[in-house]
C-alpha cells in the first residue's frame, strides 16, 4: 500500500513533502524516504520505521531542492530496512512506488547485467527507465516505454538527474492524484496528502501517465494519447485530524461515535417522518439480491447487514471477503445490487470486486467514508458515511457508521418492498435515532472496562461468542483485540463452539459472550454455561434485562443500555472496542499504529 507524494516547483520542497508523508502514514509506516534534485543531482534521505525517524535524520543531514518525491512504506517485497526504503535510485533515475510489480523477477532477469541493490519489486522501475535513457531515449519516451513492460499495480513518481523541472508519474491499479498550484505541481496518493498544498486536483484514470513541470501538466492515457481529465475542487480544507486531549486517535475516534453516528443518520433517516431516505437511483424493489463485498472490519459490517436485509426486507444477501470473491467466478443475478463497503474506498480487492460487478452489468454502490476515493468515483451510486477522517489503524467510528448506514438501507429496502408495517418502520427509525444516545451511555462504562482489561491483558488467547447479528460483532471484537493487543482471539457463532473449538477451553480461558436480552438470549446463555462448566472465565456483555437473568453466571459483566434489538449490534460494538483498547494500553502496544498493519490496503 505505501503512500507517495511529489512536488515540482520554484521553492524548497522537503518540509512540505514530509508534511504530506505524515498525512499518508496511515498507508504504511515500515520506512520512509525523500529524494530531491539539488543542483540537478539526485540525493535522498531514508529511514527505517516511522516518519519521525526520517525527520530526525533530516534534522542532522538535510536534503532539499525545488523538486522532490517522497514515500512511506508498507513492506511487500523485502524486509523493512533502510536499503529497501524508497526512493530507489538506479543511475540517473529516482522512483517512489505504491503497488506491486508482479513481473519484477522476469524484468530483473532481463536486466541481469545491472546492479540491483534491494530486494524490492520497485527497483526494476528505476532500472528500466535508466536503461532506456542510457540507450539514448529522451526522458518522456524512456518513461512511457518502461511502463509498457510492467505488470501489476502501481502509482509512481519518477525524477531524473540533470532534468530538474520534470516529474513523471503514472497509475494502474493504485490511486494517484495530481495537484495544480501556483508555479508548482504536485502528485499524491490521495487528496489528504495534497490538501495543505492545493484545492485543485485531477484524479488520474486507470492506465494514465503524466508529466509535471512547475507551470504545466500533460496527461496521456494507456495508449499514449494526450487527454484532458476533469479538475476537482477540494472542499473541507487542509485540516489534519488532531488527537486533542486523548491519549490515542483510537480513543478519540471511539468517543466521537455518538456524533459520527448522528452524522451518518442525517444522511439516511428522516427524523420527522421516521423513515429511511436513500438516493432515488436506489430502488430496492428492483433487486432480487444484494451482494456485499468488503475486507476486514468493513466485511463484518456487511455480515451484520445480511441479518438486517433478510429480516427487515426479505432480500437475500451474499456477503464475501473481496479477495475471495474476485477470483471465484461468482454467479451474479442481473437483478443484484452490489454494495462495496470500505472506509477508505481504495482497498485493492474491494475495488476489483466492484469493477467485476460493474462489468457484469449490475447496479453498483460504494458505501465509503472518503467520498473522493476511487470506489466513490467508480460506483454507480456513492453512499457516504460521513464519519470524518479515521486515523487509528484499527477501525472504530467508521465501523459503527457503516453499521448505521447499512441498517438505514435495510430499513429503506423493507419499506420499498412492502415487507414491514408502518409501525415497524417507525420503531426501527426511532431505534436508530436513539443510537447516538445509547452509544454515549455505553462509553460511560469506559472506566469499568479499563479495570476489567487489566486481568484480561494477561491472557494468551480469548474467545468471543454471539448469536444472530451479534456473531459478526464477536468476529469484530476478536479482530480488534488481535490487531492492537496481539493477543490471539477468535470469534465464534455461540452454537458452533461445541463443534471443535470448545476443546481449547481450559481453566481461566477468557470467553466474552455478547448477549443482549433478545429472542436468542437463552440459547446464548446455554452456550455460556457449556464453556463456564469447563472452566472458562466469562465476561458477559449484555443489557439490564440480560444482566438480571444471567448475573450469577458471569465472572465479569458489562451492562449496556437497553436498546431495540435491531440496533443492538451497534451498541455491543462499543464494549468490545473499549475492551480491546484498554487491554492494548495495559500491554503498552502501539495502539494507533500496530505492528505489521496499515490502514489502507491498496495491494492484493
Ligand atoms: C485494513 C485496515 C482495517 C480495514 C480494512 C478494510 O486491513 O487495517 O481496519 O477494515 O483494511 O479497509 P477499508 O478501507 O476497505 O474499509
Q: Please identify, by name, the CATH architecture of the largest domain.
A: 4-Layer Sandwich
CATH superfamily descriptor of the largest domain: Aminohydrolase, N-terminal nucleophile (Ntn) domain
Query: Roughly how much helix do the residues carry, as a percent range?
Result: 25-40%
Tally of separate domains: 3
How many angstroms separate the termini? 9 Å
Beta-strand proportion: 15-25%
**Bound compounds, please?**
6-O-phosphono-alpha-D-glucopyranose
The helix-and-strand class reads alpha/beta
Instruction: Give me the number of helical elements.
Output: 19
Mean pLDDT: 94
Low-confidence stretches: none
Description:
By secondary structure, the chain is an alpha/beta fold. The protein folds into three domains: 3-240, Glutamine Phosphoribosylpyrophosphate, subunit 1, domain 1 (4-Layer Sandwich); 243-442, Glucose-6-phosphate isomerase like protein, domain 1 (Rossmann fold, 3-Layer(aba) Sandwich), CATH 3.40.50; 444-591, Glucose-6-phosphate isomerase like protein, domain 1 (Rossmann fold), CATH 3.40.50.10490. Helices cover 36% and strands 24% of the residues. The chain contains 19 helices and 27 strands. The strands form five sheets. An eight-stranded antiparallel β-sheet has the order 3-2-4-1-10-9-11-15. β18, α9 (296-313) and β19 form a beta-alpha-beta unit. α15 crosses α19 (568-587). The longest helix is centred in the C-terminal third of the chain and has 22 residues, at 422-443. 56% of the residues are buried. The model has no long low-confidence stretch (mean pLDDT 94). It binds 6-O-phosphono-alpha-D-glucopyranose. The site of 6-O-phosphono-alpha-D-glucopyranose has 16 residues, from α9.
